[in-house]
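retry 2 of 3: previous attempt timed out while embedding zinc ion. Reduced batch size to 1 and resubmitted. Inputs unchanged:
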Amino acid sequence: MRDTLTLRRPDDWHLHLRDGAMLRAVLPETTRHFARAIVMPNLVPPVVTGADAAAYRARIMAALPEGTDFTPLMTLYLTEETDPEDVAAAHASGLVTAVKLYPAGATTNSASGVRDFDRVRGVLEKMAEIGLPLCVHGEVTDPAVDIFDRESVFIDRVLDPVRRATPGLRVIMEHITTANGVEYVRAHDRDLGATITTHHLIINRNHILVGGIKPHYYCLPVAKREEHRLALRAAATSGDARFFLGTDSAPHIDPLKESACGCAGCFTATNTLSILAHVFEQEQALDHLEAFTSLNGPAFYRLPPNEARTTLSKGDAVSYPGKIDTDDGPVTVFDPGFALHWRVT
Ligand code: DOR
Ligand code: ZN
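retry 2 succeeded.
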């Protein structure tokens, strides 16, 4: 049995770093294991313009622990007022790696997102022209649609029509949670990829709701039935280049999670790699872990994979903190519900 594994250093293709005290506290949890991350723009107020992204990037760089080698890959938050020329300039200068689409109201800080897709057509066409990818939070917000169906309905009502209307637009379906998402990606060979989170490989909806409500397992898109979790595990561990890691590690302080109206988000930056090695070993797919964490993402984004290497070794149970302290309050680390034996050495 294999007990060490060397990978190119991983990247996280979907991450929430927040700002201020939270940024300072959670950033080292990511930089310890990841060389680069696609940084989500859903701050309050959101990162909308190139100038916003430059300022946020500077705040991240200032928060980096001394001597840390980490590159934040910045994104712009797409609004109905976004200026295609501002987006193009931010891309041309190398500042911005992707644009993020939140349907208005779909999730945390998405109020400035898109309601009318016709109003962003010009930006999407510009992005297709310059090869700038669109990261998509793929859920409809129609109150008539059941929350467990919001991803599959989004594919039919929004994603497929937008992709057909904008040939050449490169799209990442982020944090897919359904077999429908997996099938849609598998059915397309060009210009489409998907990220999968760590936690959606571990939990299904029972974990959130059976035996008492578990706020630290609540995220968006919400975890679905077991059959969907199994489809995600099959996709992630398959080696298929269209699927790659985006942890969606999304810290909220405990009082905001453990509340009558708790925030969505699982904080997995701390133990993601140990959990993934566990999952890939269970699926007898350790040989595909590097593709998922370190090769498929850069290939989709047309960036070189990292030269540095990370070694994982298997041994006694790994100890990691149950909470990360921030000056705003504690953040609970995702509990996979079993002991972890793969550690980053
Ligand atoms: O669970 C989530 N948390 N899903 C999102 O889409 C947003 C994120 C956050 O920002 O907390
Ligand atoms: Zn997210």
